[in-house]
Structures are given as structure tokens and as C-alpha cells.
Amino acid sequence: FSFIALQSLDPLPMRGPELGVQPDDIEAPDIEHEPKQEVLENKNVRFVLFPGRNQTVSALFVMRRSHEARQKLLRLGIFRKVEVVIDTSRGTHALPNGLDVTFEVTELRRMTGSYNTMVGNNEGSMVLGLKLPNVLGRAEKMTFQFSYGTKETSYGLSFFKPQPGNFERNISLNVYKVTGQFPWSSLRETDRGVSGELSFPVWKTNQTLKWEGVWRELGCLARTASFAVREESGHSLKSSLSHSMVIDTRNSSILPRKGALMKIHQELAGYTGGDASFLKEDFEIQLNKTLFWDSVLSASLWGGLLLPIGDKPTNIADRFYLGGPTSIRGFSMYSMGPQSEGDYLGGEGYWAGGLHLYTPLPFRPGKGGFGDLFRTHFFLNAGNLCNLNYGEGPQAHLKKLAECIRWSYGVGVVLRLGNIARLELNYCIPMGVQSGDRICDGFQFGAGIRFL
CB of 353 within 8 A of CB of 390? Predict the structure, then answer.
């Protein structure tokens, strides 16, 4: 049979900045003959005529393609409702065995507001937002957002624009101010910055190039802050270029049952200005496999290195932190590794690995309903965080990262909150505890969107 794929008179982008839509992998069959086509437009309705020799097969294919087109329109974030009506061709321009596909859309208001709560890594916040969808008529978005949280307060203005005719390419510009409190380091940080991002797909990966310029103000959170933290206090200017690559085949980002994730991120600071100079590399790998009895086996690995450029040491705000209910369970939040007088200073190198087994609750209470949101959780975590002497070479780095490994194991219950976040209540047994580490031996509660 022959067909004509759905097309729009004006190219429209496929996704907004917060939707994270993956490109469609469905391939269209080969076209044997050049069929006739005619596109009629009347306000919000478009008719596409699909001639075919086998009307039943053509209709099924049209239904599938129409559904895909509807999903793409909804992902734009500019329509309140998209409905599809498929009928046989009628009228003067009707073709034999042709089909009329009608898209009836209702656009969002020119200005929308929102109020919601957001769960981060073991913190919560209230978010107020104001959005101008489709501000220039090509799915551009202008967004203002204010967030007030338990550890962080921020506000910012962002503009998002996709490239016409190339749905997955887009740019975004941001202006923001963020004030955060980090009690594990007795540190308060205020960032005022601007950034620009370019996102585009390459094969099955999502690539992002970013420039960021930020004025950072560090201060002590308490009078008891250590001298090492006081030395870090003051103003600094960071200008950096970064690149990230993501491959994500998981069926869910919160509690996946299958698929894999790989993230690689590089950041170079100092060559475009500012007084912070470093090269930062980190990665994340996750594998998920469904087993028997509706159980899921998951394995994760994180790692990163921070290399100072020049004679100036790295800044406390740029280093890595490890520990807590979202990483190495059984340890307090970011409370392992280098420290001074009880304040944790972060490290220049780290790794963390986790092995998890998720099973249904015993006796399956609430099966087929609310009970399916809960999973029993068995875990084994391990990792290390330290500073490195970069004059010693890679073998010395690996040896140091392999020394004094912290690890923990335990069992708990996981609650999935839709596709927003997840909650964990675990009984943890920390092992390999080093001097200065803070532990949470027993029950530990965690909430967030990114877990080891």
C-alpha cells in the first residue's frame, strides 16, 4: 500500500525545556509510488488525504501515525487539548479509499500561572511560576519561577526557543539568583548568574552545550564554622563551558523496571574569564533488569574527578560530596570524606556503587491499586571520597580511591510518587566507617529524584 506521512504547513518544535522528550524511533515503510496529496487548512483544522490500495491496512497505519502526531503536539506544551478525528474522504477533492485526518486543538492561554511543591534530594520547596507559552508563535516559552525551600531559595527568568524545522534542537537563556544553605559544611552560598544552553540529539544521545557565568558569594552559616570554611568565604567569579551527554532507555526515571542510563558531564572553567580554573569530569551509569516474581535488579555506578588548573586550589563550592539517603545510605547527608572541625569540605575525587533488589510487598497488599506504588528494597552501597595529589599519576589515584572504602547494607520500603519523586524508609547498617564520618545507624528516611 502507499501512504503520505502527516505533515504540517509550518514546522513546530517537539518539546519544551522541562519535558525531556526522546526522539521517535519509528521508521516509515518504503513508498513504492508517488501518490497524489492535497492539504486543506481551515483555522485549527488540517485535512491530509491518504490514498491506499488496501484500505484496512492504510487505516491502521494512519491511526498509529495520527496518535504519534498527537503526542508530539501535546509535548510542545502550548496546547490544552488535542483531538484527532479520522473519517473517509468526502467532498470535491476526495480520493478513492482516501482518509481525512482532522486535528482539533485548543491552545493554552497567553499567560499561565502555577503553584506546586517540588521534591529535591532530601529537601522540599514551594514553587510559584508564571509562563508565557508560545510567546512568539513557534512554541517559544518565557518563564519566571520563584522557589522557597528548606535549604534553598531561588528565582529566575528563562527563555526557551526551538529551532524551526528541527524539532530536537533548541536553545535556552537563563538569568537567576540562588541562595542555599549547607549545614554539613556550615556554609551559605549565594549565586547570581546567567547561562546559555544549546541542546541537540546525536544518534540515540541527547547532547547539551552550556556556558555559565556566575558571581558566587560564600559565607559562614554559623559562628562555629571552622577556619577552613572561613578561608573559603568571600566572592568569586566562575565562567565555565560544559558539555553533557545522556543516553536513557529506562521506562521510568524514578523507579525503573528495565533499561539503562548513562550520563557523562565535563566542565572547563577559567578559559573564558573568572578566577576559578578547573577541569571537572563526572559520570553516572545505571542498569535495570526485570527478574522473576515481578522483582527488579538494579546496579548503579557514579564517579568523578576535579582537576585544578594552575596553582590555585579548588573551591569548596566546586568539589564533590558523598553520603546520605540518596547515595551511600547509612551515612548522614554529605558527611564523609575530608573535614575540618566537623565541617565537611568535599573531595576532588570520588566513586560510589550500588546494588539493589526491588520486590513487591510481602503478600501483595493492595495489588492492582495503591499497593503497587510500594516496593520492598534490599541494597548494598559502597564508595569513597578523597582529595588527590595529581602529581602522583593515575595508579596512585586509583589506589587512594580504593583505600578506606565506606559501605553499607540494609532493607527498606520504597514509595513511588508518580513520575515526580520517590520516598525511601530503610534500615541501614553502615560499615567501613572512618574517623570523622557521621553515620545513621538504623532507620533512615530519604526523598528525592536521583538515587544511587
Answer: no
Cβ 167 vs Cβ 156: under 8 Å: no
Alpha-carbon gap, residue 414 to 361, rounded angstroms: 10
- Other C-beta atoms closer than 10 Å to the C-beta of 223 total 6
Q: Are residues 414 and 85 in contact, defined by beta-carbon separation less than 8 angstroms?
A: no
Q: Which residue has the cell 588527590?
A: 388
- Of the candidates 89, 214, 118, the one whose C-alpha atom is nearest the C-alpha of residue 421 is 118
**β-strands 442-448, 421-431 pairing:** antiparallel
Nearest-angstrom CA–CA distance, 116 and 124: 11
- Tracing cell 504540517 back to the chain, one arrives at 8
Which amino acid makes up residue 51? Answer: P
What distance in Å separates the CA atoms of residue 155 and residue 128, rounded to the nearest whole number?
9
Query: Mind listing the pLDDT tens digit for each residue in 364-392?
Result: 776 777 778 899 999 999 999 998 877 77
Q: Is 87 exposed, middle or buried (0-12, 13-18, 19+ CB in 10 A)?
A: exposed
Burial of residue 432, with CB atoms counted within 10 A of its CB: 0-12 exposed, 13-18 middle, 19 or more buried = middle
> What pTM value is reported for the model?
0.80
